[in-house]
Amino acid sequence: MRTLVVHSENSAEHRYTICQNEESDSYFLIIDEKPYEENRHLFEGTFDDVHDKLKALRAMEDLKTI
Q1: Mean pLDDT by 10 residues, the chain (66 residues)
Q2: Which of 51, 19, 21 has the alpha carbon at shortest distance from 34?
């Protein structure tokens, strides 16, 4: 699988990276160098789907620090 990094950002606890699978044109999220999974399956979709998931995970992370 050929991948292309299209977005990355750091938080206080993690490094989030959105990658594109160039073969299927879908996007997926990597957190601290590990692919993000839900129900033991790689979470993938459009860029907007994956970016929304990243924002939700960051929001949960921010709530833990308060």
Answers
A1: 92 94 94 96 96 94 70
A2: 19
